[in-house]
Structures are given as structure tokens and as C-alpha cells.
TrEMBL record:
<dbReference type="Pfam" id="PF06983">
    <property type="entry name" value="3-dmu-9_3-mt"/>
</dbReference>
<dbReference type="InterPro" id="IPR028973">
    <property type="entry name" value="PhnB-like"/>
</dbReference>
<protein>
    <submittedName>
        <fullName>VOC family protein</fullName>
    </submittedName>
</protein>
<feature type="domain" description="PhnB-like">
    <location>
        <begin position="2"/>
        <end position="130"/>
    </location>
</feature>
<dbReference type="InterPro" id="IPR029068">
    <property type="entry name" value="Glyas_Bleomycin-R_OHBP_Dase"/>
</dbReference>
Length: 134
């Protein structure tokens, strides 16, 4: 499944509420940074705990968008990321190796508390890809 993933800097919740109202959409899921299990390798400041870690909004019968508040400055970088959800670690690793060549890794493809593998990379053409293997 391929889904547009919108990246925000502290305004994801506000934006998704507007999109929900505009499309009479259904908020399928919303998780805040404060909902994450504590991790010393990824500390969350108190004033960031209410930011959106991941949101899923159903806009139409078959149309969905995802979004979150990121940890980097998005000025000059895209707000849209292509989210690729795969059921094969091998397929994900193959695509990851190709896309990271000449690009920039934002988050290494690695196991997380919510997926077998998850990571984010910008390819050499400036397109940002987010991988999740469930």
C-alpha cells in the first residue's frame, strides 16, 4: 500500500482537524509522542509530548492520508512523504538500499516498537520515502 504522508512542524493536529472537517473525514488513528514507551535513545521533551507521532485520516471511501510532526526543520524540504507499507523485510531492504544510494537517511531502517522495520530516506532526487514492514 502506498499512502501520502504529510510532515509538519508542530501543526499536524491542527491541520488534520481542518482536513477532517473539509472532507467530513474519519480520524482512524492518532498517536502522540507522549504515547510512546520511554526510550533513552529517543527522548521526548515535555513540551513535545502532545505533538502528533502518527495520524491516519480517511478522506474518502478509498482515500487516506497519514501525517506527523517531525523532528527536523521542513523549510525548503517537502511536507509530503511517500509512505510504503510492505509485508516483506527482503523487499523493503532491497528498495531501501537502492533509494538511499546518493540520498540522505533520516531514520535508519530498523525494528521499532510499532513495526518489524521502519525508516525514512530522501532519495537523490529529493523524494522522501518512509518504509514500514508489519
Amino acid at each position: 500500500m502506498i499512502t501520502p504522508y504529510l510532515m509538519f512542524n508542530r501543526e499536524c493536529d491542527e491541520a488534520f482537524k481542518m482536513y477532517q472537517k473539509a472532507f467530513d473525514g474519519e480520524m482512524v488513528a492518532i498517536q502522540k509522542y507522549g504515547d510512546m514507551p520511554p526510550n533513552p535513545e529517543f527522548p521526548v521533551a515535555e513540551n513535545d509530548k502532545n505533538l502528533v507521532l502518527h495520524a491516519q485520516l480517511k478522506l474518502t471511501e478509498s482515500g487516506m492520508i497519514y501525517g506527523s510532526d517531525g523532528q527536523r526543520n521542513y523549510e525548503g524540504s517537502p511536507k509530503v512523504t511517500i509512505s510504503v507499507e510492505l509485508d516483506s523485510e527482503e523487499k523493503a531492504l532491497n528498495a531501501w538500499e537502492i533509494l538511499k544510494e546518493g540520498g540522505s537517511v533520516y531514520m535508519e531502517l530498523q525494528p521499532t516498537f510499532f513495526a518489524k522495520l521502519h525508516g525514512s530516506v530522501q532519495d537523490k532526487y529529493g523524494v522522501t520515502w518512509m518504509f514500514t514492514v508489519n
